[in-house]
Backbone:
């Protein structure tokens, strides 16, 4: 603890980092966010996160809280002020502070907050063993492509996983996997990587996008199509991608061992490629 946080233009000690009880993020979940990884004190894949923030704001008709240049400077300053070498920056924009009414308030400035969190990203011990997941019904709303702070379904899914002694949950809609509670889901069969195509049903992950590029550069085939939990149970490998996990092998789904219960070669290779690039800065 003892961090320096950012709140609406000011860098303040975390005890003083506060927003109003009338903030629409707090009252309605009327806000969006981004999580950007930091390795060796450098932001990873920052432009992709800011591009997606812009998309989330546009889709929700929410105003930018500041200029893009100010946002970048704020991220870099936060890394510096907290001496962050490895971890994440969490940034949240909400529709601002106003009396409680559902429709958009007029002439209200967006709220912008950000903070750092120290995490072991590169040498994450889970990557050596892989993680276990369960499947659970996807009870989320119809615009999961927008990165909103309305994360209750993910909170419940992750808690269900923890209660069952595993790390995470893959969500299922109409008999097909959508994504993980806070990550995109992939399986590997006969050397091909399979993942759900982008639509309103899933978040367009920045790590997913980077993985597509790296796979293309290194001759790994990716097939975008729907897949079932049963197909996942019978896969050669499985993994997830996210800004805080990068490429993380999955070695058990619903109690069924995947790839003999060990991280597979494709998952390991993709993680290595991602880390190599991220560490170059
Ligand atoms: N979660 N799908 C969902 C539902 C997510 O919440 C996330 C990210 C992803 C992966 O996106 P990216 O590769 O851009 O991180 C997919 C972040 C890390 C979080 O909520 O902590």
Residues:
């Amino acid at each position: 603890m003892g961090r320096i946080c950012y709140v609406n233009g000011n860098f303040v000690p975390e005890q003083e980092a506060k927003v109003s009880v009338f903030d629409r993020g707090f009252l309605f979940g009327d806000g969006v966010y981004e999580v950007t990884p930091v390795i060796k004190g450098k932001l990873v894949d920052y432009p992709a996160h800011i591009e997606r923030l812009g998309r989330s704001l546009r889709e929700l008709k929410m105003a930018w809280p500041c200029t893009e240049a100010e946002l970048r400077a704020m991220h870099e300053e936060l890394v510096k002020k907290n001496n962050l070498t490895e971890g994440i920056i969490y940034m949240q924009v909400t529709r601002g502070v106003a009396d409680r009414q559902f429709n958009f308030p007029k002439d209200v400035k967006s709220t912008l907050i950000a903070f750092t969190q120290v995490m072991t990203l590169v040498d994450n011990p889970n990557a050596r063993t892989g993680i276990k997941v369960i499947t659970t019904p996807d009870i989320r709303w119809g615009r999961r492509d927008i990165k909103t702070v309305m994360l209750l379904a993910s909170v419940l899914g992750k808690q269900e996983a923890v209660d069952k002694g595993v790390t995470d949950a893959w969500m299922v809609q109409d008999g097909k996997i959508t994504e993980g509670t806070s990550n995109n889901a992939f399986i590997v069969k006969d050397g091909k990587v399979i993942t759900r195509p982008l639509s309103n049903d899933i978040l367009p992950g920045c790590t997913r996008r980077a993985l597509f590029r790296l796979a293309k550069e290194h001759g790994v085939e990716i097939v975008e199509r729907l897949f079932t939990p049963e197909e996942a149970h019978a896969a050669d490998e499985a993994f997830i991608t996210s800004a805080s996990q990068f490429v993380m092998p999955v070695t058990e789904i619903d109690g069924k061992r995947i790839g003999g219960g060990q991280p597979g070669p494709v998952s390991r290779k993709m993680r290595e490629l991602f880390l190599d690039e991220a560490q170059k800065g």
